[in-house]
Amino acid sequence: xxxxxxxxxxxxxxxxxxxxxxxxxxxxxxxxxxxxxxxxxxxxxxxxxxxxxxxxxxxxxxxxxxxxxxxxxxxxxxxxxxxxxxxxxxxxxxxxxxxxxxxxxxxxxxxxxxxxxxxxxxxxxxxxxxxxxxxxxxxxxxxxxxxxxxxxxxxxxxxxxxxxxxxxxxxxxxxxxxxxxxxxxxxxxxxxxxxxxxxxxxxxxxxxxxxxxxxxxxxxxxxxxxxxxxxxxxxxxxxxxxxxxxxxxxxxxxxxxxxxxxxxxxxxxxxxxxxxxxxxxxxxxxxxxxxxxxxxxxxxxxxxxxxxxxxxxxxxxxx
Length: 319
What we know:
By secondary structure, the protein is an all-alpha fold. It has helices spanning about 10-35, 40-60, 60-70, 75-95, 105-110, 115-125, 130-150, 155, 165-180, 190-215, 225-250, 255, 260-275, 280-300, 305-310.
């Protein structure tokens, strides 16, 4: 890793630029999901997105995949499951949720993913949680509840949560499970790992797209739909992955992971500017709670004892 104490200021600035670019792309995805409504059906968008990524991989990353194929082949079932969970199913719920909630809500709810990761890691691996981390979890959970209830005590009392918000919470749980599962990733370069999971994501999406068509929900992309597909493919799906991997290589996964806190911020900003969505007071409260909770959970976490555990986390590819 290059994220050592001797990192130059130029190297650090490059890493910051790469990681901010990554989070900008991922924040953009919430707005693109809303723009896709009425222009392309959710599963067509998911399938087209990962097909586009495969084509980009064939152009730019095929040499690495061929080189690493002997190491990848024995792990194909595991990688297929990871691609299905973290890419296909997460994206499907993400884009379906966009039909019944706002881009601001989608962005803020995504901020809960690091907390879900910590909770699942505790349940599966018994990772220790400090008391202040637990406080951070509760603060973030409060922020999620504020978003899901629309800041309405009456709605909260009646447990009336919009379908889109509920689907986004499920999507975040799926992605957190995927992130925790990456601890068992094979020891191969991350770009090759990403390429195989992207291919698996496309293959797994085909039956879901067929089911969408059978239920009469299939919508072929309009011109706007094709533009959304192209933007989703190039920015959140492909470039963001490359930027993130390079940023992690420079700073290390621990410091790079903190930048994920910017996703809700960028998503909210784009939603207001591009979609003219209303940024209500309860959104500000929820955003502050989510970011505070994440900061506390990261700031007061226990040191990782095994260095190799940290190295393996560099493969935590996002949306």
